[in-house]
Amino acid sequence: MIHKESLTVEVIRGNLVESRHWGAAVVVNARGDILCAWGNIDCHIYPRSAIKPLQALPLVETGAAEKFGVSDAEIALACASHSGELVHTSAVGKWLERIGLGVDDLECGRHLPYDDKRAHELIRTGQAYSNLNSNCSGKHTGFLTTAIHMGEQTKGYIRPDHPVQTHLVRVLSEMSGVDLSSTERGIDGCGIPVIGMPLTAIALGFARMADPSGLERKRANAAKHIVDAMLAHPYNVAGANRFDTIAMQSAPGRFAVKTGAEAVHAGLIPDLGLGIALKIDDGAKRASDVAMAAILLHLGVLNESARAVMSPFLEMPVFNIPGDRVGCIRMAEGWAS
């Protein structure tokens, strides 16, 4: 089912469509066959944090995770845009200590925790926030672990010419089926290079993680290990009140999803061997959450109980300041027909 029309998310207030978000999405299998598509799926986008599970492959397949005793919970953190809750920062801190490094070795920068409760606690008590609170601190600790294992310099591991980053480009090219050596480049929020990729390539990379049977054995084992870690530890992938954690907890073991900045979202369904990638043109996360929830429902991976849990995303309520529900955000009528 391929639609030339864009994926459309509508914002309803009263009985009027007040706003619309347009985007593109694609669902593929590990052979690259397109099962569903909407909009311009060949347009290059920056995948941002949505591809963190793919970026974790070197950590596992090089043997770095095994050498340093990286647990499945920590592998999930390497795939995470975590909320900076204490459970996240404590785990990353202990992981850094185990590899002989500290917070200052992280080059991801710092920001207040995404988790409001933890952020308010730090402000109220006058505690400083650190690079551990960065939503990308788990991914960066994975990079550092790999660099140490490979005998590479840790300082400057975020530079485009560092072996950690050049290796990642090769891995992403192999998994996505696209030569990414000369595509568009930018700098991500956490300082690493961000690479232009078509949606179809992102979806194919995730499909090959969902169904790694066509990969060579070491990479196939690494892909399965990473997927299993995400499925087993969805709280580490995001955190309280976050789409990715809520979605994966709604249907345990059924699928994994990973959000990225600027309304990018990717996912995989192991038992169907499918990969999903979507991008909302204007970067509105409210629309990408609604679209990903709708696609998961469309693909039949949300049973009745999961659908109930996901109902706030399938039809996201709009409230006014006094707290009254005054509308909703939902897919445009007939989007999947």
What this model shows, in words?
The protein is an alpha+beta fold and 337 residues long. It has a single domain (2-331), classed as Beta-lactamase (3-Layer(aba) Sandwich), CATH 3.40.710. It has 15 helices and 13 strands. The strands form 3 sheets. Strands 1, 2, 3, 4, 9, 10, 11, 12 and 13 form a 9-stranded mixed beta sheet that branches. Strand 10 and strand 11 form a beta hairpin.
Please give a quick description of this structure.
The chain is 40% helix and 20% strand. The protein contains 15 helices and 13 strands.
Q: What percentage of amino acids are in beta strands?
A: 15-25%
**Average pLDDT metric:** 97
Count of runs of 4 or more consecutive helical residues: 15
Largest sheet: 9 strands, mixed
- Uncertain segments are none
Termini separation comes to 9 Å
CATH topology: Beta-lactamase
Question: Which oligomeric state applies?
Answer: single chain
What is the second-level CATH architecture? 3-Layer(aba) Sandwich
* Count of DSSP strands: 13
Q: H/E series, N to C?
A: EEEEEHHHHHHHHEEEHHHHEEEHHHEE
Number of domains: 1
Shape summary: globular
Which CATH class is shown? Alpha Beta
Gyration radius from CA atoms, angstroms: 19 Å
Topology:
Layout: E1 2-3, E2 7-13, E3 16-29, E4 34-38, E5 44-45, H1 52-55, H2 57-61, H3 64-67, H4 72-78, H5 86-98, H6 116-125, H7 137-149, H8 163-176, E6 185-187, E7 193-195, E8 197-198, H9 199-210, H10 217-232, H11 234-237, H12 243-250, E9 256-260, E10 264-269, E11 274-280, H13 285-298, H14 304-309, H15 311-314, E12 316-319, E13 325-331
Parallel strand pairs: 1-4
Antiparallel strand pairs: 2-3, 2-13, 3-4, 3-11, 5-8, 6-7, 9-10, 10-11, 12-13
Helix pairs in contact: 4-7, 4-10, 5-7, 8-9
